[in-house]
Amino acid sequence: MDGGTEFRLWAPSAPSIQLALGDGAGKPADFLAMEKDAGGWWRVVTDRVRPGDAYGFRLESGLVVPDPASRRQVGDVHSLSVLVDPTDYEWKTAGWNGRAWEESVFYELHTGTFSPSGDFAGIVEKLDYLKDTGITAIELLPVAEFGGRRGWGYDGVLLYCPHDVYGGEAGLKRLVDAAHERGLMVFLDVVYNHFGPDGNYIGSYAPEFFHEEIHTPWGAAIAYDEQPVRDFMIDNALFWLEEYRIDGLRLDAIDSIKDTTDTPLVKELAARVRETFPGRHVHITTEDDRNITWHIERANGQPILVSGEWNDDFHHTAHVVATHEEEGYYADYSRKSVAQMAKALATGFVFQGNHSQHRGREVGVSSGHLPPTAFVNFLQNHDQIGNRAFGDRLADLASRRVVECLQAILLLSPQIPLIFMGEEFGATDPFCFFTDFDGELGAAVREGRRAEFKKFAAFHDEDARKLIPDPNAETTFEASKLDWSAIQRPTYRRRLEMVKRLLDKRQRLIVPLLRGELPGGCGEHHVSDDTLAFVVAWHLKDGAVLHLFANLDDEPWALPSDVVTGDLTCGELLHAHPKGAEEALKTGVLPGPSVVFRLEGQKLLTGIAR
């Protein structure tokens, strides 16, 4: 502002707050008194801190803390903050307005393990490769500054500050600019349900920011009934979308946001996003264990609030079919996983108000009225790989033929697909859970991680649990880095070429049929008893019907005579895997395991359920 910079800090019960001015070494050198207004905000205007200078806040106890809305730090989360001029970056792609939601093909990646350099610049080097593969949107695991140098990012404490190890605010802006130059969207995973355990100083000067009496898996709940707290988080979402020109946000575990107000935070946040950026394609996705739909409802074919919900149900059914695992939450999917997969593909969720044995209660609401694009499907993601004891990928757990069939189902079905880094070439590198804590916190994280697996048969024995990698060991982080040399080997190259063909077909032949308003309840499915085979038909734009024939068993499947009513040779063959599956289907038999996608002008099937 004219005359200098205004510094503000919300600390309604603090007896005093001073602005700490840093010296050339980034250490506190002088202090200015701040004045508190009736709303609990401490303020001061000064011309003694210029862009590039260090600053912080000194509490009555003498503790100097960083700005909770810091854009850059001198060092780590415990250091002073740095004043940043947010207008000093000159965008090359200032006219970029994003891409339509139905064009989204997500590539989820972790900045630190995606490239050899482990930073934003390393991602830039791979953007041409991703575009050539058919990816349209990269999705970054959280990048907000967290304790230590390495971690997944879900322990962020400075939510406005890109992690310095990754390249900081300048590096992130260069990445977004470079992606937009190539027509790629950039999504960011953001965490509004908790702060990390290392470097969160807010409670030391604003205990009102938290509800100590309301517990979450990570500690005290955030007090979203306090307007400054609510504004802090909503402004954070707008900040990434405006200042960094991010194309969309993934809201982590919104079911763990303990909001005591009448208006859920997600509802207000999404509405503000829609109002603030009416001229851009800006999208929001969510993770939610409740299988709710109020946030992903449509009006005239367009999302009212949230564009898409991560559909864990689809993942779980696919994983059980491929691996036959039945422990933990997979117990809900072990008996009828193929039938459940067909239901998820046709109507959204598996659990739509029915009882979950694993959770001991009824879960979900009806979702069949929603278009398939209201759901983000995946076979793997950071959680589903990284929350395994050894970070195993699906390629190490299931047969190659079944995985390739599932990959075709993922990429050619009308839901929005997401793949995890390296999945496109069948990477087998583990992606483990890793952190960078030491002392008591490091020990607690290590032992807590191992204790999580006590309930699994393979880890009932304490000695077996000791084999689980230590999250704080640098070797655990290094083992999780992608091995890019694998692409040079024939098996991996073959998988990559298959994925490229599938994504090319998706954009050319399927995406145009997803534009605008799709008919309600557009999916139908049929599953034969005692088989691992099913058929799904989706009624898309302009009367087109997309058919999926899938047999994930080893034995061939004869389509029941009361199911097929049309000529299976008409229309357009989109994909058949393996070779010969389409010819066999013409005779009414689908070999196993195999999938066939056909696009017709009419439905070829009868006796299948919506």
UniProtKB/TrEMBL annotation:
Keywords: Carbohydrate metabolism, Cytoplasm, Glycosidase, Hydrolase. Its EC number is 3.2.1.141. It is an enzyme of class 3 (hydrolase). CDD domains: AmyAc_GTHase, E_set_MTHase_like_N. Pfam families: Alpha-amylase, CBM_48, DUF3459. It catalyses: hydrolysis of (1->4)-alpha-D-glucosidic linkage in 4-alpha-D-[(1->4)-alpha-D-glucanosyl]n trehalose to yield trehalose and (1->4)-alpha-D-glucan. Pathway: Glycan biosynthesis; trehalose biosynthesis. It is found in: Cytoplasm. SMART domains: Aamy. Residues 108-460 form the Glycosyl hydrolase family 13 catalytic domain. GO terms for biological process: trehalose biosynthetic process. InterPro entries: DUF3459 (IPR022567), GH (IPR017853), GH13_cat_dom (IPR006047), Glyco_hydro_13_N (IPR004193), Ig-like_fold (IPR013783), Ig_E-set (IPR014756), Trehalose_TreZ (IPR012768), Trehalose_TreZ_E-set_sf (IPR044901). GO terms for cellular component: cytoplasm. NCBIfam families: trehalose_TreZ. Belongs to the glycosyl hydrolase 13 family. This is Malto-oligosyltrehalose trehalohydrolase.
